[in-house]
Amino acid sequence: MMLLARASAGLIFWAFGFSVLYGLHGIGCAYGWPSTEVGGGNLFRWVMVASWLLLCAGGAALIWLAKAAPSGLERRLSLTSAVVGCAATFVTGLPVAVTSACV
Amino acid sequence: MSALSRHRALTAIWGSPRGWRGTVSSVNHSDIGRRFILAAFAFFAIGGVLAMLIRAQLATPGSAFVGPEIYNQLFTMHGSIMMFLFAIPMFEGLALYLLPKMLGSRDMAFPRLSAYGWWCYVFGGSILIAALALGVAPDSGWFMYTPLSSKAYTPGINADVWLLGITFVEISAVSAAIEITVSILRLRAPGMRLDRMPLLAWYLLVTALMMVVAFPPLILGSILLEVERAFGWPFFDPLRGGSPLLWQHLFWLFGHPEVYIIFLPAAGVVSTVLPVMARTRILGYGWIVAALLALAFLSFGLWVHHMFTTGIPHMALGFFSAASALVAVPTALQIFAWIGTLWKGRPELKLPMLYLLGFFVIFVLGGLTGVMLAMVPFDWQAHDTHFVVAHLHYVLVGGFVFPMLAGAYYWLPHFTGRARIPLLGEAAFWLILIGFNLTFFLMHLTGLLGMPRRIYTYPSDMGWTWLNLLSSVGSFIMAFGFAMFAVDVALQIFLSRRARRNPWGAHTLEWAMPLPAPAYNFASQPRVADGEPLAADPDLPLRLARGEGYLAEIRHGWRETMAVDVTTGAVDHVIILPGNTRLPIITALATGCFFLALLFGFYWLAPLPLVAVTVLGWRWAWTLGWREEIGPVPIGAGETALTHREAAGAPGWWGSVFLLVADGTLLGSLLFGYAFLWVVAPNWPPPELIAAGLPQGAVAALAALAGTVLTRLAASAGVAGNNAASSRWASLAVGAQAVVIAALLWLGLAELPAPTGHAYAASSWAMIAYGVLHAFIALLCAAFIRARIASGHIRKGRVLETSVAQLFGDYAGLATWLILACVLAPLVLA
Ligand code: HEM
Ligand SMILES: [Cu+2]
Q1: Is the CB of B518 under 6 A from ligand 1?
Q2: CA B375, CA B305: separation in Å to the nearest integer?
Q3: Which of A18, B560, B756, B773 pairs as cysteine with B232 (C-beta 3.0–4.6 A)?
Q4: Per CATH, the architecture of B3-494 is what?
Q5: Which CATH class is domain B651-829?
Q6: Where, by residue number, does the polypeptide cross the bilayer (chain B) (predicted)?
């Protein structure tokens, strides 16, 4: 079972991050964060971009952890899962930096 | 014992009686698998006829062949049949039939559950087909969008037929998923490590796990919509705080993973058949497994690409658009692995290979249009046009039907023990390939010319006339092809000459047995030391038949098979499987009565079959097990192992874990719905919120905690052999769960507004109902422990039943706490 757990860890992390971003987006729009000015931007953008970057950092940390998995299929799967998780977190989160907020 | 007498003895144990007795009582995986495949093909034929009617109607502008009412039923039933009654059951049948054989095992982990799933599938499917024959079939599209499917716009029973019939069939999908998962994880031949498993098993494992989490959102959505239609709880009615978008989220949260659930098993067939056709090993085993896992997860982050035109904010669309484009990467990786395998090997253009080539061409085109549709601006143009119809048929027919046809020709000798008649199959292939492309390639064009999907007619000045006519001609060519395929298969079954053993020279274990396969699969189970056992050891079949493997000894008429460690494949214990019984069909009938009572609106009658199901479920668990101490039994090669009731981590425990994962996903979806409505739906906040109820909440929470702790105490006392104490704790746990039920109901009745007033109250009530149901299940589990201690089944060292009861006790406690937190949140936050 450890093999399957390790092999899914990075991807589970992506699923978690994806849900966090999507959830924060819903909540932020419902509570009007885009119209709250903070430090030269709006609260919504700050929260979204900061969470995204944090998640990307978390994904990178997972790659580093995955290198410790037992060698063979288990290491292969843990590593690819972590790399895919991190890359997917970066790509699927990219819209927080470039699209309009709540329309 | 000679090979022949062993064959006779094992057949007596594993086979089923002849005639209708065998039909209603068999739980053997080969029987059930074959039935699933045949029935799925029958539904495919029905769905195909509907498709031809659709094409007949669209062949010419202004056609008067069928009117809009019938047309709506035609396309709704076509889609629903193909997705729910053909594709999923077809792969389930293939998995049930093949998996134990490929894994070197004698049966699946829960034979009675397979049989129950089979009966639920036939009964549920029959309800849908009966409705079609009576002209009251569902007619709101295979995705049943509200408000079209709500009471106001579908007052008849059409929508109820879909919601209840499909949910009934879904039970069989979830059972199969749990069954497949546990069987792959535990029921393999000793020595078959995870990384020596045939790739098809990896594909099926990943698919089954996806099903465990993908089906619950749809089951929940169907329950909620049915409750809205029957009792007026407004989950999807925007005037009363509901949201039609909630339905779309729940549906596609299931629906997108569903398309991968259909594709992956077929891709598994490709990865199995292709290397044999190319006379080499598959390239990049590890990479393929990694790609599979990535696909499985990413496919849960795509569902909103079906909702790009619903007015969701751009940023949210961006997340899903990016994920949709990303999912093409692991898909492409597999394609390259297949191409590489062909390159490396010496491919032969046999019939299965022809179908694989057809698959490549068609599926790649479908994937490309998928990526086009995943781009939001393009989708705004193409959504709801025939372009989408073209895309989905390229991926579904290319990605499922073609590989399955390759698989059909590849494994048919295994089912029939006979060889194919030459040429007929090739002719069928070309008809299907040409017919398919003619039908569906042109739909890209009609779609881009603006022809919407689901219109029953169109005027001649739109410029779509010729394209549609050609499409219809193509569809009839394709239908001829499928008919020819059916004839070819029938000839092979009834007329053809006998096949050689292992006619393709394959290296996986399903070919290490006589053809057609005996009921017990292997006279003795192999020890596996290589990913391709027959390549490493061509004499294996002979030695297994001679009884030189595991479990060659026959004792007490038991159906025995080995359970192994998940990762290493080391011998773990011996599983003694239940034999033929009529319990599955009777339980499925009772389940069906429940659905029929709801369908016909006899709500007062519905509790009766529910009680029957509960009683049968009790009996189901009761008839297993034994009072005597067995201890370690010899398994061959001088080794011994415990039997599953005395070993930790038996399949029953694992099955319960995955059942609870599915159940937890259902709860998660319900909580998501609650939060979603709260944040997004119009007409919030509700006119009336919960105003009091902390005392009831506190009682429920404490009783839930007590119920969990007491069940745990009962379990550990039972395993320690302390019967009196265990029995006492179990009784107390029953009491505690009863208190939970009472307190939850009291909370709802005394403090919550009526559920029909607003979606807020309706969703709070839905959560309460969930909590009550699970407290009741935990209550039954505790009562079961008590009864089994009294009957002497639970005794020192018997961990299985107590550990399962403990799982359900823990889950009920957790669920009650979560639900209380959500129901009481408005009160606490106010
Ligand atoms: C490269 C991967 C894929 C991408 C990016 C993709 C993308 C899409 C998009 C964006 C839509 C929605 C179009 C619309 O309604 O406006 C769609 C529809 C659909 N796709 Fe795919 N797809 C992919 C692969 C697949 C596969 C592998 C299958 C099944 C085997 C599939 C089955 C379907 C079905 C059934 C629909 C239509 C659902 C309906 O509206 O009735 N897709 N796809
Ligand atoms: Cu999709």
Answers
A1: no
A2: 9
A3: B756
A4: Up-down Bundle (1.20)
A5: mainly alpha
A6: 36-54, 74-98, 118-137, 161-187, 199-225, 245-270, 282-304, 316-342, 354-376, 388-411, 423-446, 466-491, 583-604, 653-677, 729-747, 767-787, 808-829
